[in-house]
């Protein structure tokens, strides 16, 4: 009887709320792990990082640093600390890639500008296109006009199909992340790696005040990080160079993270303790939706020019 009671205490029955909390938390974890991969691929494919705001990444990086410091201060489990370190490391990779492409393309632009200056100073008789003699820049304007004519002659259905296929691929990727997260939780539950946490915390396990302050600092950084990106998209009237899947995974991660906390417990003390993380996750969802609206309104520069032509 004593052994049975001890076994029941070590492996308590799993309730529906605890299971949902675990599943949502695991899906959120999978979203954060794969979050930056789409944007890294997008930058590599385009050979440019002009679409993403470095201020966005810098403030987000500060938020991850505050999150890591808070996790260390609170003495959280090693898995949480390891993930916080991974987030900071992944941020550095993306920031380094963006800085590299910006510097590389900046040098290339200066070289191209120097070559164009030399060509303008060259003898006009040496030009093969006699129709543009004496009209500097007319060839460039003509080529742009021809490109606009070709773009406007393309059927609009092609743009619709391309955009539709992109959304379908991204939706399938999101479903795949959800499946991986749910499967990961099931394996962790069956093997005993994951166990439901008690809803009631005693005074010895309460989070330190400094750790909570760092949690609020990270939440403020997460909330403010997307503002420079939203402003940049609005100023450029384009979302070219941004990965839509990147923000879809961000929305998924924030939504499931908040759901995992709320399904675990709705007690006042618990919610107050986790309020900073709830603000940081659920609050940024509004900004992610704003960026989705910009994707819908602006699209990429090519699509915009084709429509305007």
UniProtKB/TrEMBL annotation:
GO CC term, one of those recorded: lytic vacuole membrane
Keywords (A to Z) from UniProt: Membrane, Transmembrane, Transmembrane helix
Chain intervals with Basic residues compositional bias: 138-149
Source domain of life: Eukaryota
Disordered, as annotated region: 126-149
InterPro entries xrefs: LAAT-1, PQ-loop_rpt
Reaction catalysis annotation: L-histidine(out) + L-arginine(in) = L-histidine(in) + L-arginine(out)
Compartments where located: Membrane
GO process terms (BP): vacuolar transmembrane transport
Annotated GO MF terms: basic amino acid transmembrane transporter activity
Mode of membrane association: Multi-pass membrane protein
Residue ranges crossing the lipid bilayer per the database entry: 22-41, 53-74, 80-103, 167-187, 207-225, 245-263
Family membership noted in the UniProt record: Belongs to the laat-1 family.
PANTHER family: SEVEN TRANSMEMBRANE PROTEIN 1 (PTHR16201:SF44), SEVEN TRANSMEMBRANE PROTEIN 1-RELATED (PTHR16201)
UniProt protein name: PQ loop repeat-domain-containing protein
Species this chain originates from: Ampelomyces quisqualis
